[in-house]
Structure formats: structure tokens, C-alpha cells
Design a protein that fits this description.
The chain is of the alpha+beta class and about 100 residues long. It has a domain of about 60 residues: Factor Xa Inhibitor (Irregular). It is built from three helices and two strands. A two-stranded antiparallel sheet has the order 1-2. It starts with a helix and ends in a 10-residue tail after the last helix. The C terminus is likely disordered.
Length: about 100
């Protein structure tokens, strides 16, 4: 009887709606890395703690791939678009 109840619980949990899984590319999970050089370039990185693209100072060499020239590039690369927005289409009516 306990086994039957356990099985029913597993089945019911499996049928609950789940939010769509979103995956962040591996390089977006690295922290900001200035690198060994001493230049002073404004760049953007994805902050996995805040879930946002933030600016940091890049030294000009080395570092890692979580390093973007523009915030827009960081957002496109590291912040997944919600599933409901990916497939959204615009309906254009011919009515005046």
C-alpha cells in the first residue's frame, strides 16, 4: 500500500506544470576577469549572482570569454529569452 501511494505521488509530481528550462552558456558563468594587463577598457560581463549584465574594467589581455564590448551583446549571449517571447508573433489586421 505504501509503495502504491509513493508511486502515485511520483506520478502526480511529474504532471505538475514546470517553468521552461533555460540554459546559460558555460562562459557566462565565469566571473569578470580583468586579465594580467593594465589597460582601462570598459566592458560588460554576465553576473550570475544578479542575473544581469554589468560593467567592469578589462585590462586589455587575457581574461575569459565572459567579456563583451557592448551590454547588448552580453544580454543576447547570456540572458535567455523567456519561452513565451520566443514564439510570439504579431497579428496584423486588414480591418480599417
Amino acid at each position: 500500500m505504501k509503495l502504491l501511494l509513493f508511486a502515485l505521488c511520483l506520478v502526480s509530481v511529474g504532471t505538475l506544470p514546470r517553468p521552461p528550462l533555460t540554459r546559460v552558456p558555460w562562459f557566462c558563468l565565469d566571473g569578470a576577469d580583468k586579465g594580467p594587463c593594465n589597460a582601462d577598457y570598459k566592458r560588460y560581463f554576465f553576473n550570475k549572482t544578479s542575473g544581469r549584465c554589468e560593467n567592469f574594467t578589462y585590462g586589455g589581455c587575457g581574461g575569459n570569454e565572459n567579456n563583451f564590448w557592448r551590454r547588448r551583446e552580453c544580454i543576447r549571449s547570456c540572458i535567455p529569452m523567456p519561452k513565451d517571447r520566443e514564439n510570439r508573433s504579431v497579428h496584423i489586421s486588414n480591418k480599417p
